[in-house]
Amino acid sequence: MGTTASDAGATTTSGATAGAAPGVRPGADARPGAADSGPGSAVDRPEGVDLADPAFWRLPAPARAAAFAELRRLPAPARFGAGQSRGGRDQGFHALVRYADVVEASRTPGVFLSGPGVTTPEPARWVRLLFGDSMVNLDDPRHAQLRRIVSRAFTPRLLSRVEEDIRRVATELVDRVEHERPRDFVNAVAAELPFRVICDMMGIPAEIRRAILDQVNHASEYTGVARPLRERLRTPGRGLRALARMQGMVAALGRERRRRPADDLISALVTADVDGRRLTGRELGAFFSLLLVAGVETTRNALAHGLHLLTVHPGQRALLLGDLDRHLGGAVDEIVRHSTPIIQFRRTLAVDHRLGGPDGPLLRAGEKVVLYYGSANHDETVFADPEAFDITRTPNPHLGFGGGGPHYCLGAHLARQEMKVLYRELFTRLPEARSVGEPELAPSSFDHRVRSLRFAF
Fold first, then answer.
1. CA distances to 118, 408, 450 from 447, in Å
2. At what angle do helices 192-202 and 281-291 cross, to 10 degrees?
3. What is the chain's mean pLDDT, rounded?
4. Residue 266 buriedness (CB in 10 A; 0-12 / 13-18 / 19+)
5. Phi, psi angles (nearest 5°) of residue 315
6. Alpha helical stretches, state H, 323-411
7. pLDDT at residue number 369
8. How far apart are CA 191 and CA 183, in angstroms?
9. Is residue 17 pLDDT above 70, yes or no?
C-alpha cells in the first residue's frame, strides 16, 4: 500500500503510561474519580448512547459527535455490547474514545493484542484458516516477520515508479473529467486513483482489473454495516465467495511471477528472501486484500470527504487555492483528521492493565477494547476547536493513520502523495471543482465510507 513504516512511540509495559504524542496538552490523561472498569463495574454511559447498536451509526453526524464528546468526559471507558454472544463468547467491549487512550493501546502491543482480530465481529477461525491472516490481525513475531518482507519489497526503484504512476494517473483522470464531465466524484476520480496506482504497483494485468474491482466491491459492501435481512437471505456468503475469487486470481499471478519475475511488487514479494522467508500464495492474497481495503477504500473516502469539506468551507478553500505549495500538505492532514476514514479497530487484553497508569481504570485480561480513531481526532484536550476544519492547524498529531506502534499504517506516505497530487492537478486545472449537495454515506461503524458524491466545475 505505501512506502513508510513508523513506530510513533516506544512500547510500554503493562501499567505504564504511553509517551504523549506531539501536541498533547499536559494533564490530558487526568481521570478524576476513575474506578475499576470490568464487566461488572463499568461506568454509566450517557443515556441513549449505544455504540454497539447499528442504529447509532445511522444518526446524523452532529448527534454522533455530541455522543462521543460525552463519552470522552467520562472518568473511564464506557462498556458496550455486554451480554451479546457469538459462539458462546462475550461480545462486550470498552470504548477507547480519548486520544491518550487510543495512543496507549496502539503503542503497547504486548498488552493490547491484534491477533484475536481487529474487526467487529472478529473473523471466524475457519475464515482465517481458509484465507490466511491479514497483517492487521497478527502480533509479533509473525507480524514483524511479514512486515519486514513487505518493507524489503518496496525498493527505491519501485517507489520512484509509483510516484510517476500517481502523477500520470491523476493527469489522466482530470483529463477525463474535463472532457466527459461525470457527475459522481467517487466513481470517476476518488476510487479510480488509488485502485489504478495499486494495480500498477502490484503488476495486476489490465485485462483482469475490472474483475478484481468487482470482487472488492462485493467483498466490502457490508463491512461494518447492519446488512438488510433480504440481502442476507438472497446472497448468503457473497462477500466470502468474492474474497476467495479475488485471492485466487492474485495467488495465480504469484505463481506465475515466481516462474517469470517482472518489475513489480508481486514479483518482489514472492521472490524476496528475508530470514529464509518469502510470501506464500495465501499470504500474498491476504496482503493484496489488505492493500485494497487500506489503500483503496480509505484514500477514496478521504479524497471525497476532502472535496466536500473544501466546498462547505469556502474560506479554507480560498486559502488553499491561493497558495497550494504552502497549504496543500496541511490541508491533506486536516482532511484525514476531520474525516478519519477508518473509524475503529479493536484489541484484546493480554493481561490485566491499568489504563493511563497505576491509578487508572482496570481492564481485565481477555476483555476487548475498541479504538475509536474518529473520536480521538476530535479530542478537545489535544485539538483546539476540534470540530472546525482548519488547514493551517499546527501541530496536527492526528491518528488518521493509526496511533503509532507496530500497526501504524504502512501506506501513510503513499496516501498523502496520492491526495496531494490529485488535488494539485484538479484545482490547478479546474479551480471551480466543488461538491454538489451532501455526500451519500454508508451507515458503517468501521469506515467513514462515501458511496457517491455529486460534483461540478
1. 13, 17, 9
2. 160
3. 84
4. buried
5. -65, -40
6. 324-339, 373-376
7. 97
8. 14
9. no
State how far Cα 405 lies from the chain centre. Answer: 15
Ramachandran angles phi, psi of 399, nearest 5°: -110, 30
Report residue 256 as a C-alpha cell.
Answer: 506465475
Short-list 105, 26, 7, 86, CA closest to 361: 105
Identify whether 439 is preceded by a cis peptide bond (ω within 30 of 0).
no
Q: How large is the angle between the packed helices 156-180 and 412-429, nearest 10 degrees?
A: 30
How many angstroms separate the CA atoms of 336 and 447, rounded? 12
Q: Judge whether 447 and 301 are in contact, CB under 8 Å.
A: yes
The answer to whether the CB of 212 falls within 8 A of the CB of 204 is: yes
Segment 82-90 mean pLDDT: 55
- Of 26 and 369, the one with more pLDDT: 369
CA distance 134 to 219: 15
* Straight-line distance from the first to the last Cα atom of the chain, in angstroms, rounded to the nearest whole number: 31
Whether residue 382 contacts residue 23, with contact meaning beta carbons closer than 8 Å, is answered with: yes
Q: The C-alpha cell of 396 is what? A: 496536527
Place of cell 474525516: 339
User: Which of 260, 265, 398 minimizes the C-alpha distance to 329?
Assistant: 398
The per-residue pLDDT for 240 is 67
Mean pLDDT over 313-317 rounds to 98
> Lowest-pLDDT range, 57-61, 285-289, 402-406?
285-289
φ, ψ at 345 (rounded to 5°): -135, 160
Q: Tens of pLDDT along 140-162?
A: 999 998 888 888 888 888 889 99
List CB contacts of 401: < 8 A, sequence separation 6 or more: 336, 408, 409, 412, 415
Of 93, 79, 83, 80, nearest to 122 by C-alpha is 93
Residues 7, 257: Cα–Cα separation, whole Å:
32
What 3-state class would DSSP assign to 39?
Answer: coil
Give the predicted TM-score (pTM) of the model. 0.85
Q: Cα(398)–Cα(373) distance, rounded to whole angstroms?
A: 9
Report the amino acid identity of residue 43.
V
Q: What DSSP state is assigned to residue 135? A: G
Q: Cα(228)–Cα(308) distance, rounded to whole angstroms?
A: 28
d(CA 443, CA 226): 8
Give 99-136 pLDDT, tens digit per residue. 999 999 999 999 999 999 998 767 777 777 777 778 89
Closest CA to 283 of 296, 291, 223, 411: 291
